Amino acid sequence: MTGVDTDKVNTYIEDCISQKDPLIKILRLVSMQSVCNNGLKQKVLDYYKREILQTYGYEHILTLNNLEKVGLLKPQTGSRNNYPTIRKTLKLWMEDANEQNPNDISYVYSGYAPLSIRLTQVLARPGWRSIEEVLKMLPGSHFEERQQLPSGLHKKRQQGENRTTLVFFLGGVTYAEIAALRFLSQMEDSGMEYIIATTKLINGTTWVKSLMDRPESQIL
């Protein structure tokens, strides 16, 4: 997540495979490296695939294919890796995160600030126009639309009254993201309250499991 040595085979992942750690753990780590590096060099990707199939069984070739279909695993192309710019601009990695007395949402992942919550924070202040170029680097489209309300429905906020924002997660939200949003609303200068809606509660394990061809055989 810090963007260090993401373009080569990771020795920790190698050790985990050699010790035959749970496959879901391996898939999560390799996927994270791929996402943070805008794909893996072809020889690195081929190495990981070969090691995974030889260690855990060739039946998992369908699982690897599923990860490629959704973009978690992919070969590196000539396009620029935008992750360092995104990480720096949105302050996704905080070296001095304080988990005991937090002062930033990055405490929920011991230094990593969830991208979804950082975007929510920037939207509240100073607004997405300040990060327009970064938004273009993120997957999917973005838009801003203001709903015009009849004058009779406008509610004037009282002094000191917080604004309420509904944050809807399509596909699922993690407990860490929920904790980060709660932290944002509790900040003294936030002036915001957040309502969270989602289609599902997920974590890294359940998400990768949903992409596996035979997940029941790999929960150890």
From TrEMBL:
InterPro entries: Sec1-like, Sec1-like_dom2, Sec1-like_sf, VPS33_dom3b
Broad class of where this protein is predominantly found: membrane
Subcellular location: Late endosome membrane; Lysosome membrane
Residues annotated as transmembrane: 165-184
Record's keyword terms, sorted: Membrane, Protein transport, Transmembrane, Transmembrane helix, Transport
Keyword Transmembrane among UniProt keywords: yes
Pfam entry (one): Sec1
Top-rank taxon: Eukaryota
Record membrane topology: Peripheral membrane protein
Alphabetical list of PANTHER family matching this protein: VESICLE PROTEIN SORTING-ASSOCIATED
Family of the protein in this entry: Belongs to the STXBP/unc-18/SEC1 family.
Protein name: Vacuolar protein sorting-associated protein 33A
Gene expressing this chain: VPS33A_2
